[in-house]
């Protein structure tokens, strides 16, 4: 991955930016999914829809000869073009992708669909641009654990969150086949860290962020220690997972 240093994008509360100690937990939680997708995205044309800072597209570019990363925010697109020379970056509305029919071998869109008002239309666009036999990979927070007991999201930036069953239905209804849903969980070491911080390192981070006070040294130390190896991606116990990953194929 390209070295990240100066000129990082500003934090928005939604866009994950690498290289910031306080953001490390969220960065690793997203990075582990990109790493899991590398073999599925090797040797072809990959489109990332909603690329954010660009670190994921750059990681995929390590195994795919062509990676096009699109985002609606012009500042983000300019940053990706400047920071990651192996990635082609373009501004686009995700429900009107600037790509011809069946042009992509794989489409990746991680932690994006929950922000979209027209989720069904977006998935139809994904289907359009992926070639027959091509792969789509979509991740999103699990509604059952991210906004428990609610029909509307707790996060004001989210329009509609999904359970594993709801995500599978949405992807299948768009025309994709062989839909598989995986769930991201804390591994053993992260569960130990959860216990040290009142049961949830996520809640501990949210609490200190909302308080406006400085980070406790123990919490910051644990957050910065998190690696991809601290997460587990599995088909089991989906309803208790943190994030969901849908994998599917265009027939």
UniProtKB/TrEMBL annotation:
CDD domains: AdoMet_MTases
Alphabetical UniProt keywords: Methyltransferase, Transferase
Alphabetical list of InterPro entries matching this protein: Methyltransf_11, Methyltransf_Superfamily, SAM-dependent_MTases_sf
GO terms classed as biological process: methylation
GO molecular function: methyltransferase activity
Protein's UniProt keywords contain Methyltransferase: yes
Domain of life, per lineage: Bacteria
Ranges for domain Methyltransferase type: 47-137
Transmembrane annotation, as ranges: none
Keyword Nucleotide-binding carried by entry: no
Protein name: Class I SAM-dependent methyltransferase
Organism: Pseudonocardia alaniniphila
Record lineage: Bacteria, Bacillati, Actinomycetota, Actinomycetes, Pseudonocardiales
């Amino acid at each position: 991955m390209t070295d990240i240093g100066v000129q990082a994008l500003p934090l928005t509360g939604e866009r994950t930016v690498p290289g910031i100690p306080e953001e490390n937990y969220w960065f690793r939680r997203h990075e582990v999914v990109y790493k899991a997708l590398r073999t599925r995205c090797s040797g072809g044309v990959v489109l990332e829809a909603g690329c954010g800072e660009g670190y994921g597209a750059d990681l995929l570019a390590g195994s795919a000869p062509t990676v096009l990363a699109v985002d609606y925010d012009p500042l983000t697109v300019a940053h990706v073009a400047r920071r990651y020379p192996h990635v082609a970056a373009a501004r686009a509305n995700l429900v009107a992708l600037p790509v011809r029919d069946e042009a992509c071998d794989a489409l990746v869109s991680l932690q994006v669909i929950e922000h979209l008002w027209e989720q069904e239309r977006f998935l139809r666009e994904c289907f359009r641009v992926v070639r027959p036999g091509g792969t789509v990979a979509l991740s999103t927070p699990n509604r059952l654990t991210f906004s428990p007991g609610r029909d509307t999201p707790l996060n004001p930036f989210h329009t509609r969150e999904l359970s594993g069953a709801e995500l599978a239905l949405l992807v299948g209804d768009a025309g994709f086949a062989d839909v598989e849903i995986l769930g991201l969980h804390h591994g053993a070491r992260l569960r130990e860290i959860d216990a040290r911080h009142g049961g949830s390192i996520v809640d501990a981070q949210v609490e200190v962020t909302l308080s406006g006070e400085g980070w406790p040294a123990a919490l910051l130390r644990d957050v910065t220690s998190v690696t991809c190896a601290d997460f587990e991606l599995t088909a089991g116990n989906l309803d208790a997972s943190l994030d969901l990953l849908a994998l599917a194929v265009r027939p």
